[in-house]
């Protein structure tokens, strides 16, 4: 196992919690193993897209690194306006973040006090619940009692997905008047060229109607980190339903939260139509092949998740097998995510859809080392 030496000369081999900020103190996340994986071939533990970072955007950053000599604009321009028109928003109420995580935390801090409810999923991305607990919110006994709903759709890690019509009905039937509904649609851009129409944020009239008739605030969060493959940079945004929510978020947001490199990277990605086109063309096709190969070799495994997504959630039906799969994958240079950590699903693993030559390495590892289990 390789090790990392920090500036004080301490060695952290990635397995100990001797550091001042131990990983164990934080929620467990995928994407943490790559530094301690010898001969890293590909990181299957994150849900990023199949293309890797956008080459055109990387070249742009290369040529514009000198910009770090200047502060970014306090009003997040020109990036915020570019994002607004790329999303097709007819209003101004969008803000950006250094990753969506800070926006998740802020909206959960600022929404009216009270209990929370999670989406209608078996299990979902945990940072929403973690933020709720940080601000002393308690899980409501029934969703109708909650003043805040947090719903990840499509859901990471399970890949469950509710169509926009079903999402609207769910909200209308389950959320009480005056509540806030925070929907994370970070994984929806994989839906395809018509992903905007498949999104709740695009239901402008309905969102306005929910606000004026029932006082329900529909807030939509996106992490652009995943679809544009920039986990080391990170960028996100939040779409608010009205000026009051927008002003409140602005008031409490940390200044200069979006650095120029992240803003520039997103800006080029949004303009580069080919990048997303290729992502859509390859992902579901390769996911299907990846799924078929795994199902043939491991017929007991239940491979879950919507067909357009960039990852699969697999119930191996055995904690031992899942743990061994994680160990073997890492040893072969292809770390994957174990469902036990963070999600408390010990028989599950999550693996990304990757290019065929990369998947073949992981597949060979599984075939050679798990078949005897
Ligand atoms: C559904 C979802 N939302 C938000 C995030 C956080 O993204 P970011 O890195 O942009 O803060 C993640 C990261 O795993 C995620 O899976």
The overall average pLDDT, rounded, is 93
Quaternary state reads single chain
The CATH fourth-level homologous superfamily of the largest domain: Type I PLP-dependent aspartate aminotransferase-like (Major domain)
Number of helices: 12
Describe, in plain words, how this protein is organized in 3D:
The protein has a 6-stranded mixed sheet with strand order 3-8-7-6-5-4, with helices on both faces. Helix 11 (319-331) crosses helix 12 (356-370). 37% of the residues lie in helices and 13% in strands. It is of the alpha/beta class and 373 residues long. The chain has helices at 55-63, 79-87, 101-110, 127-134, 164-174, 204-214, 224-227, 243-252, 260-271, 273-297, 319-331, 356-370, and strands at residues 4-5, 11-12, 94-97, 116-118, 148-152, 180-184, 217-223, 236-239, 302-304, 311-315, 337-338, 348-352. The protein is built from 12 helices and 12 strands. The chain has 2 domains: 4-11 and 28-53 and 275-370, Aspartate Aminotransferase, domain 1, CATH 3.90.1150.10; 55-271, Type I PLP-dependent aspartate aminotransferase-like (Major domain) (Aspartate Aminotransferase, domain 2). The two termini are 24 Å apart. The chain is globular, with a radius of gyration of 21 Å. The protein binds pyridoxal-5'-phosphate.
Describe how the helices and strands are arranged.
Elements: E1 4-5, E2 11-12, H1 55-63, H2 79-87, E3 94-97, H3 101-110, E4 116-118, H4 127-134, E5 148-152, H5 164-174, E6 180-184, H6 204-214, E7 217-223, H7 224-227, E8 236-239, H8 243-252, H9 260-271, H10 273-297, E9 302-304, E10 311-315, H11 319-331, E11 337-338, E12 348-352, H12 356-370
Helix pairs in contact: 1-9, 2-9, 3-4, 10-12, 11-12
The protein binds pyridoxal-5'-phosphate.
